[in-house]
Amino acid sequence: MNKILKIILPLCVLLLLISCAPEAEPPSDFTVVATFYPVYLASANITHDIDGVSLKLLTPHGAGCLHDHQLTPGELESIEGADLVLALGSMEDFLPRISRVYPEIKLVKVGDESNEHCWVFVNDYIKMVNYIGSAIIKADPDRADDYERNLRVYLEDLSQLAKDMNLALIDLSDSPVIMFHDGFDSWRLAYGLNIIATVECEPGVEPTPREFADTLDLAKARGVKVLFVDSHYLGAAAHTVARETGAKVYELNPVASGTESLDYYQRAMRSNVETVLAALGEG
């Protein structure tokens, strides 16, 4: 009997100590603000379904590229209380204002300073996603395992997208094209697009008369039959060139704006591939 008590009593004491031990505190809430849609979309894939984490997009979903964007008072106020602000860095002229108003908030630039449209090429977007994942994990290490799980899944999807795009676009025609958006210049080397001119049109901003005349003359001289435009571009220049030369206008989505769908980037890029193949797929 004494032997049994000697065994049972320590076990009872151990169980009592375990039952009285305080429960581990859950990680405190963590708020991320992304300045720009592509940064937001990557962050959403990394943070989704993780308890206690909230993600905000600072600018409107349909804002497009943030050239000359000025923060509204409401947008600036929405940053208050954030634990981390993620920015592309090469496009947001308002970042010094954020740092001045909220000097205590950590602001991390995740883009490529040498290429302000780095997310348009999937391999560069993968680099950006990795930067974002590292920044979030460093700022909130208590949830590192959850972030890393989501990051791994997203990177697998993007890696497959990169392989599929390389395979699909390997035999493009070398017919000359004119691009009405400078964001796709990275596709020139990556996929062999024969872009002979880039007209840096932004929504609501048309090329100057001189730029338009030069573009029209070049299109006629080189026999251009394909014009690529930003899907948000509603201007007349490209359509006028098409009318004057017999070229056809095709829309490409630079993913500067989009929906809440986590797979929006993949779907947009696959749609772009279909568009390019329709225009130049005869090889």
Q: What would CATH call the architecture of the largest domain? A: 3-Layer(aba) Sandwich
CATH superfamily of the largest domain: Nitrogenase molybdenum iron protein domain
The CATH C-level name of the largest domain is Alpha Beta
- List SSEs in N-to-C order: HEHEHEHEHHEHEHEHEH
Quote the distance from N terminus to C terminus. Answer: 90 Å
Globular, elongated, flat, extended or rod-shaped: what is the shape? globular
The proportion of residues forming helix, as a percent range, comes to 40-55%
Q: Widest sheet: strand order?
A: 2-1-3-4
Domain count: 2
Overall mean pLDDT stands at 88
Write a structural description.
The protein has 283 residues and is an alpha/beta fold. The protein folds into 2 domains: 30-167, 3-Layer(aba) Sandwich (Rossmann fold), CATH 3.40.50; 171-280, 3-Layer(aba) Sandwich (Rossmann fold), CATH 3.40.50.1980. Helices cover 46% and strands 13% of the residues. The strands form 2 sheets. It has a 4-stranded parallel sheet, covered by helices on one side. A 4-stranded parallel sheet has the order 6-5-7-8, sandwiched between helices. Strand 3 (84-87), helix 4 (95-101) and strand 4 form a beta-alpha-beta unit. It is globular, with a radius of gyration of 25 Å. The termini are far apart. The mean pLDDT is 88.
